[in-house]
Amino acid sequence: xxxxxxxxxxxxxxxxxxxxxxxxxxxxxxxxxxxxxxxxxxxxxxxxxxxxxxxxxxxxxxxxxxxxxxxxxxxxxxxxxxxxxxxxxxxxxxxxxxxxxxxxxxxxxxxxxxxxxxxxxxxxxxxxxxxxxxxxxxxxxxxxxxxxxxxxxxxxxxxxxxxxxxxxxxxxxxxxxxxxxxxxxxxxxxxxxxxxxxxxxxxxxxxxxxxxxxxxxxxxxxxxxxxxxxxxxxxxxxxxxxxxxxxxxxxxxxxxxxxxxxxxxxxxxxxxxxxxxxxxxxxxxxxxxxxxxxxxxxxxxxxxxxxxxxxxxxxxxxxxxxxxxxxxxxxxxxxxxxxxxxxxxxxxxxxxxxxxxxxxxxxxxx
Amino acid sequence: xxxxxxxxxxxxxxxxxxxxxxxxxxxxxxxxxxxxxxxxxxxxxxxxxxxxxxxxxxxxxxxxxxxxxxxxxxxxxxxxxxxxxxxxxxxxxxxxxxxxxxxxxxxxxxxxxxxxxxxxxxxxxxxxxxxxxxxxxxxxxxxxxxxxxxxxxxxxxxxxxxxxxxxxxxxxxxxxxxxxxxxxxxxxxxxxxxxxxxxxxxxxxxxxxxxxxxxxxxxxxxxxxxxxxxxxxxxxxxxxxxxxxxxxxxxxxxxxxxxxxxxxxxxxxxxxxxxxxxxxxxxxxxxxxxxxxxxxxxxxxxxxxxxxxxxxxxxxxxxxxxxxxxxxxxxxxxxxxxxxxxxxxxxxxxxxxxxxxxxxxxxxxx
DNA sequence: TGAACAAACCGTAACGGTTCAGAACACGGT
DNA sequence: ACCGTGTTCTGAACCGTTACGGTTTGTTCA
Lengths: 366, 366
What we know:
Chains A, B: This is LacI family DNA-binding transcriptional regulator. 2 copies of one chain form a homodimer. By secondary structure, the first copy, chain A, is an alpha/beta fold. Chain A has 3 domains: about 15-65, Orthogonal Bundle (434 Repressor (Amino-terminal Domain)); about 70-165 and about 320-345, Response regulator (Rossmann fold); about 170-315, 3-Layer(aba) Sandwich (Rossmann fold). Helix content of chain A is about 45%, strand content about 15%. Chain A has helices at about 15-20, 25-30, 40-50, 60-65, 80-85, 85-105, 120-125, 140-145, 170-185, 205-210, 215-230, 250-260, 275-285, 305-310, 320-330, and strands at about 70-75, 105-110, 130-135, 150-155, 165-170, 190-195, 240-245, 270, 295-300, 315, 340-345, 345-350. In chain A, strands 2-1-3-4-5-11 form a 6-stranded parallel sheet, with helices on both faces. Chain A has a 4-stranded parallel sheet with strand order 7-6-8-9, sandwiched between helices. Chain A has a two-stranded antiparallel ribbon with strand order 10-12. The structure holds a DNA duplex.
């Protein structure tokens, strides 16, 4: 410890006031309202503070009195690696952090361990509001947050009526993407998706499991794919869907392997995230499949690495998403009605999608 | 707002106690020490709480009394994008978040805007300690944190005596890497490095600027390179060093461009981060340079994308780094002496390094 | 001359909890 | 009838600060 030795006890505003022979109010004013006391006295207060090793009013006591914690809480998916390893999630965090920074408030990551039913941390967090990102619809932590008498904003994931929410139109964006793939002529497709529910299932996902997914975004994207492909005459029960609980590039690779082993004739792999798509790309390379000649691969999110890899994907403004959430939350309080912000998306056709290798071409585009 | 309507004022422990006709102590015990009251009464308390919309003891008031905020503060570099976009930084954050999660405490990102001299946020943060990551040695926010009567742990960046610190041996690791490059026979090398000081300099960095760098890690790596190359007979003033303030792949590309435009004869580009190296790789491709036949490129950190790209780099255990920092901080308090944890690194030779294209080969290896 | 007013400072009452030393009571044993 | 031992609940002190409504002092101006 290189910090200066302190007297028996940490100095407080009161002890400082006693030492100076002034009232506590005056010391408080020295820090919070410089215009309320003479510059000389203020200087004297600050000097004595330094001498006593007093670093200014205690944040917690201040928060209690002012009823503002000066921080917003972030509730996110059970496994943190998703939040930090997926650039899309990172973008959301960054945007949110930026909004908080602008407002001069902290951003507190509230713990909610894997399978952790312990919501105590949510109750114990000293925050002025919550941003909830990417948790399943029935998450107990979310419920705990809603109990707290502070505003809450949802980003993307839980779908709940009456709450402030920020996110893209996942259905519409996915329909665009699917139409692109259909338009290229693909009829034998496979899907790689992220975790659908809280229980681990690193395997094919039944239609029931798809419809029952607790992760709204995945459910929405799958539903949109189903709609589009069925409209194109592809029965959904003929489309294999492989799910992965974790969300690393390797998981995408293993999912692709599992799917292609069982369904070698698919000509397109639609992935519900870029990370999974990058893994699929790696697996395709390992098998000697040319992309897109032998296999079309698409992602979702539009992260940097995807762009660099030329991935066909849907880009969404993740930074803005986080920022919007923060601003929404910090601007709340006066507002009465709940607000929903829908962000634009953009289909970005790269070099990983093309017509299928099979002889008969279904080409509907110009 | 879908939250239940509340009476005039939010319920408190006192109002609950009054409603029930018991003491505040008892209500408090119902939440914190269930064994201190009869199960029936506890049940009655909890039921009444639910009825009144009381979500449990106020976190801030509790923190004031117990003198534990239940969160650790994270102070990081001025620009957040570094923290969220660089997977190495993300790994540190994740590890730290994991350690916090294990301990059931929150992790608060304390704002400290770019060029923001306003350290108020550091004083206002209700935290039990600080982790400082990747800030310049003379950062005012760091100073503010040290004033606070809470423990502090440094990760990687600021080099300050007497403080707890976690990080790799940057010098030794860089020497290993440099020896690898020297051993391959390279004598005409260039260096791409990250921000050296708080002022922007997207240009070549003079030797003075290198030695005066406020970012300790960069300074250490450059110094190690200098030592190794001079030992191999390469005068350091013949080695161009290009600096970039921001830290995206594109910045690495533009830095490589700038360096290669002026020094087309260099046979190796040593980058102080994988992100910069990935950019250099892209720029090499753009120029039609074969890697490593025409140009050797190395990185630092060992992030996933680097591995996938086959980059020669130094791997460091970023997750463990963050975890160690968290554990160190949360385990502090009883401890007296300051502690320093040095993490192991590993040189990972990939497919982006090889002997130089020039005729004369200097091969010192087996 | 004294009324009006601004500047500088102060006293008190919260803010919403936790904690500790007991009080009140019930119960079995002697 | 008395004692010791739990169990269950309570009263009061305290955590460190800021909000609010003063009082005091000095200056200005009709």
